């Protein structure tokens, strides 16, 4: 039989298979509902999820599909004992969660499934011990048995290094095996009889000893004392090893230590990684909208399941939601940014907008790879940038120092990326809309990439007004909306931030009756009243032969931050001037500092002609 005939036979044993009505209508299997195909159109899996389907899972028929490696019937109404999946020896992923399967699973149920990596049996009615054959699967990475009635002791999973692991809400008991003591306590929650690391220690002696391994005899008298001594010695050794391990880990991960940026309004922005188990997103797949939509051809190779169960680290929580770094097994490392404030936009409009963003390609734009849409919850998937954000380098305490030359390279890249956006979105008021240092990320060679561009249109207006960078330009408080030069304002603030090392949010305007200040006003006042040297970040201040070019860039920043929109430069003027800035002024002067005459620095009111100011050596 052909694969098509075999699949039709398989369908015949299902009840309520209405969702599969299109099976058999098309000659290409890959267009049938629920069939997973590779790029070369070879069939590799069945994903029959949320279809209110039941009946028999006919394993004898599935055996005839040699290319089947992934099988999912998540969220259906299948019941009875677990079918004999071990006959599908090539299976790599098995998803049976959220059904009504029940009964004990034989100990050898997974025997011989040497390729099996992912087992999801959560939220069923399985009982009895966890089958020992699971612990013998050499490649098992994900195991989710939560929400069943599994009982007895947990087998020793010595061969596995789990990525997803969850045994919560069962009836397991006894000591947690040492091999699992490094898991999160939440993986074992809701099993009253369990004890040992990472839960509370097991009580010994008296009636409490029931929480130890049940077959551990209770010795009396002398034997008892010997046993207690042995346990204490083992515990002390184990404790010291764990402390030593933690100490080593702490030092190895020093650079991933969470950091906190200065506050912006009431919100804290964190930089650096916090450890996490998997992406904490409650994606309700019942909607049928559970598709990950790729927006460019050169990205892909993973699906929503793989993304959500990838091992993940929280990068931070911005004004729109959390951002995760996700390391997909046998796939790329990506960044998932969740947006909670795009409720007013319909699916069609949203998809079209994302497809449009997906066509943008420039070395200084972070490519959008995919999006996920549900009415009240959306997320975007971007490439991961190895060197984190510009903000973390400027303000984090990770000890990194950006030289003048790398800062200039970054500003030039930002300007080019912004120019590309202005050119490709000619009708848009603010082509970027959220340009700020945490939205400039740096790749492996510190090439800057703009992030979170082109999102103003799909954002709720009230949220945009409150949080998006373009709305912080002065014209917004006057006219209630940004102007075509508002992105230039953001570019100017970014330039001043890069040169001064100061965090702009600490210099925010406070509107009516407030102190009416911003970073540009501060720079202006320092330059006017004091001494230019004070304005630059101390890490670049002494740069040999760079000061006059640094001053040039400072001046450009000030022109981009003109309060009056008429006096503010256009994006193309700003970009052209930035391109002219050199790393080095070419003069071989050994002095480490330059002073600029005060009148050169009337920049808030200066005209463009005054741009070529003189630099006098101290
Ligand atoms: N693609 C990426 N590669 C590496 N780091 C990233 C990437 N995207 C975001 N980050 C970093 O993750 C952290 C959290 O980002 P997030 O976008 O949630 O917050 P934010 O940029 O501070 O605020 P906002 O939500 O207003 O944009 C920031 O330090 C950001 O620079």
From TrEMBL:
Domain Protein kinase: residue ranges: 309-618
Binding site for ATP: 337
Transmembrane region(s): 226-248
Gene Ontology CC entries for this record: membrane
InterPro entries recorded: Kinase-like_dom_sf (IPR011009), Leu-rich_rpt (IPR001611), LRR_dom_sf (IPR032675), LRR_N_plant-typ (IPR013210), PRK1-6/SRF4-like (IPR046959), Prot_kinase_dom (IPR000719), Protein_kinase_ATP_BS (IPR017441)
Membrane-protein topology: Single-pass membrane protein
PANTHER family cross-referenced by the UniProt entry: LEUCINE-RICH REPEAT RECEPTOR-LIKE PROTEIN KINASE PXC1, POLLEN RECEPTOR-LIKE KINASE 1
Protein name: Protein kinase domain-containing protein
